[in-house]
Specification:
Blueprint (H helix, E strand, L loop, with lengths): L2 H12 L3 E8 L3 H6 L8 E9 L4 E8 L10 H4 L3 H4 L3 H4 L1 H17 L8 E8 L5 H14 L2 E3 L1 H13 L6 H10 L2
Parallel strand pairs: 3-4, 4-5
Antiparallel strand pairs: 1-2, 2-3
Helix pairs in contact: 8-9
């Protein structure tokens, strides 16, 4: 797990989610053929959070992009295939349906969630390229029923951590050091 995934994981934990990182989805041979990847290894999800209160499985793709140009809207809405390959769950409907179907079966079978959870897809990113890309992404994500967690979302959650009681987590300690007055 990388540092950005750990940060998002700890934020979700603070918000009441049980969180697993690097979740392997065990696709069957038939499912692999259905998505056009017959020799693919197990599909890996960055984070899966479960909120028992709402019976929601939150699948989170994490992209920090802190020292890069950031997330480009063209990867999602403009047909830029080189960029889109980084976000397969967002850009390939068949893949998403198969992976989410198998994820639900796996988690229910192992007792990690209740029957028939709602599965939501989220992108957590540390940087979006520019204001125009942000606007396009926000509109596209709302239209698709996805969740976009950007820099503002991260800052707001870290500010909450800084204001809260002591937690022995790297994210909470750093938030307190940098954000408390």
């Amino acid at each position: 797990m990388d540092a950005f995934e750990q940060l998002v994981s700890e934020i979700l934990w603070q918000e009441g989610y049980w969180v697993r990182t690097s979740v392997k989805v065990e696709l069957t041979k038939e499912e692999k053929r259905a998505i056009g990847r017959p020799s693919a290894p197990r599909w890996e999800l960055d984070l899966v959070g479960y909120c028992a209160r709402d019976n929601v499985l939150q699948v989170v793709e994490c992209k920090s992009y802190l020292d890069s140009s950031g997330v480009h809207a063209a990867a999602f809405v403009g047909g830029n295939t080189a960029q889109a390959n980084r976000y397969k769950l967002f850009t390939d409907d068949a893949l998403r349906d198969v992976v989410f179907g198998r994820l639900q079966q796996q988690f229910v079978a192992m007792g990690a969630c209740r029957e028939n959870p709602v599965i939501r897809l989220a992108l957590a990113c540390g940087k979006i390229r520019n204001a125009n890309d942000r606007m396009q992404l926000e509109t596209h994500f709302v239209d698709k029923g996805w969740v976009l967690w950007d820099e503002a979302w991260l800052r707001e959650r870290l500010s909450r951590m800084a204001a809260g009681g002591y937690e022995n987590q790297v994210s909470a300690v750093v938030a307190k050091l940098l954000l408390r007055k």
